[in-house]
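Q: I'm writing a short explainer about Three-Cys-motif partner protein TcmP for a general audience and would like to include a description of its predicted shape. Could you first generate the structure from this sequence?
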Amino acid sequence: MKAALGIAAWTRTGSGIYGTNASLRTCRSSSSNGAGALPKPEAAPSTVVPGTNDPTPNTRQTRSRPSRRCDRSRSAPFRKCPSGYIPGVPVPSEPIWSCDPHTVAKHQILKVYLKQWLPTLLLGGYRGVTYAEGFAGSGVYQGGEAGSPVIALRAALGQRQLLEAGKTVDLVFIEEDQRRFDILKQELTKVWAAASQAAPVPATLRRPHLRCADHADVLLPVLEQIGAMRQPVFAFLDSWGGTDVPLDIARAIATAPASEVLVTFGTRYLIRFGEQDRQKEEGDRVFGGTAWRKVFTLPAGQKKLFLVSTYRRSLQEAGFRYVTSFEMLDEGGHDLHLVHGTSHLRGLEKMKNAMWEVDKVGGVQFRDPRDPAQGLLELGLEPNLMGPLHRALQARLTERPHTVAELKQHALCETAYRAQHVFPLVRRMLREGHIEQSTPGPLSDNTLLQLAGPKPVQDSLF
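A: Of course. Here's the predicted structure. Afterward I'll give you a sentence or two in plain language.
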């Protein structure tokens, strides 16, 4: 349990949110339902940085960190931390760094998804929604590329018609590094000012709520204090791939109606360092239990798949009915997983659409972590006849015959593919003789399919 931190209390004054520091202990329950009451902090007047809902620097209380003993050489874009907060995980040493292929792919997916998520929820009977980030970064990269907070703000600004109709959007950005935080404020202020030149930004798009702190300590309290937990929340928890995101955060967000999480999940850290006592405790917080520790007894080739599958189950137990994941692999062989949790099938469908609509990014490839053969996904193309989806459907039919509709559901919920990928692949599998129909008639969702039986051996004539 981390020590209690002083965090800014939020009170509504006019159209802005004002903050001041007050002592607040965040209750992270270890119970199965994750319940933990958040005490109401005392409020006092303060000032706000123009363009954001951020307390001024002199009102923030910073947190002390254990010595990282890292290589802080400016010649390298990343430093390797053998010990400290996230040992063994590459962390940028500068406030702005280059946008690697992993990040380009993630941002393309996020941009496509938010374009679908915002109007779907706002038109679906909800008065407002909240987008939140726990690792916001600087909002910009060395090449001038927009960071995820800027992408999210622009996506919200693009919903002007719904905003003018009275729908509300809140944006919450948490960044622990003071240098990145200061740059982030500047980038968001520039985007807001540019949008205001054409026409005033509707008041229903609240100025972003910014906090310079550890997301594990302040994200949930801020969401509670601005009333976000009474409406849909989409939380993007894009960490460095260490043990940064306690499951309690996802569990709490799952209690908000129609809420979702998108988590960056890495396996290398736990595989390399997980047997150390401190890292075991960190892993327990990430997974919400000790089941993940079985990884220490598995062969090397099974460790990654086991950790990803166990984390998916942890998110499901936390309250997200549908959890999907896919792996991004760069040219150097470095892997990173995006794990999406939602309780609505439509949310799962839209995330799959966002993934498959992403442009092909140079230097990064995609893989379904559940595919035993670890075949690469050809985004934008029809599934390969002998590829991951073919193997998944064949394995499913090995159990018993299934209808086409059941195979569609399996592909959507248990693979990296979409339901619409199934029908054309089934036709090809029928033509090639891999499977056969158990029911007569034209191929439809109700058609029962089974694996093709052995072909009869013809007698040879001599």
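A: For your explainer, you could say: The chain has two domains: 66-367, 383-451.
Q: Perfect, that's easy to follow.
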